[in-house]
Design a protein that fits this description.
Elements: H1 4-15, H2 21-36, E1 48-57, E2 63-69, E3 75-76, E4 79-81, H3 88-100, E5 106-107, E6 114-120, E7 129-139, E8 152-159, H4 163-166, H5 170-178
Parallel strand pairs: 1-7
Antiparallel strand pairs: 1-2, 1-4, 2-3, 2-8, 5-7, 6-7
Helix pairs in contact: 1-2
Length: about 180
């Protein structure tokens, strides 16, 4: 089953040290969705689909890279649709590289950093749906310079203490809190 590797990652995450109480309900929803929906990695699945996100840290861990998302109008971590790819770490790396312009991004760990389930509002030609988001911590090399992609209004290196000035969403603040416990 092409979903087995993701289910194994989710099971390890459930038992690991990084999961927070706040994530248990979203993790349950995400896991149930993957188990029941064979097309969970496809954007065409109306209920929602798997996405991969990148919590990008500067080489020294002093800042994270946030994007001012054009369609949503929010400061968020880079990420995007799996589009059929069951390797969610590869999706997070691809999206992080595409949206930041930093080709040398590397995963701090092959394990999940965070999970979330959030609703994407309806837009022209697309109904409201859920993103079952699997997030990985990535690191940029020293001297990395970002390039704003067509999906963003802007990008910014944001110190941990300033993340709440950009976004007060619980899931973004949770990742900022986990920042100090990264591997």
């Amino acid at each position: 089953m092409h979903r087995a590797p993701l289910l194994e990652l989710l099971a390890r995450y459930r038992e690991g040290p990084r999961i927070t109480e706040q994530e248990r309900a979203p993790l349950d929803r995400l896991e149930a969705f993957v188990r029941r929906e064979p097309a969970c990695f496809e954007r065409s699945t109306v209920e929602g689909h798997i996405t991969g996100s990148a919590w990008i840290l500067s080489h020294d861990g002093a800042a994270c890279l946030l994007t001012h998302h054009k369609k949503l109008g929010l400061w968020l971590q880079p990420g995007g649709h799996a589009d059929g790819d069951a390797d969610v770490l590869a999706v997070a790396l691809k999206e992080g590289r595409e949206e930041s312009g930093i080709a040398e991004l590397e995963a701090l760990s092959p394990e999940i950093f965070d999970v979330d389930v959030h609703e994407i509002p309806a837009r022209k030609g697309e109904p409201a749906h859920l993103h079952y988001d699997v997030r990985f911590a990535l690191v940029a090399p020293a001297g990395a310079e970002f390039v704003v992609s067509e999906e963003s209004h802007d990008l910014a290196w944001v110190p941990r203490a300033e993340v709440a000035h950009y976004n007060t969403d619980d899931s973004v603040l949770r990742m900022a809190a986990k920042w100090d416990t990264r591997t």
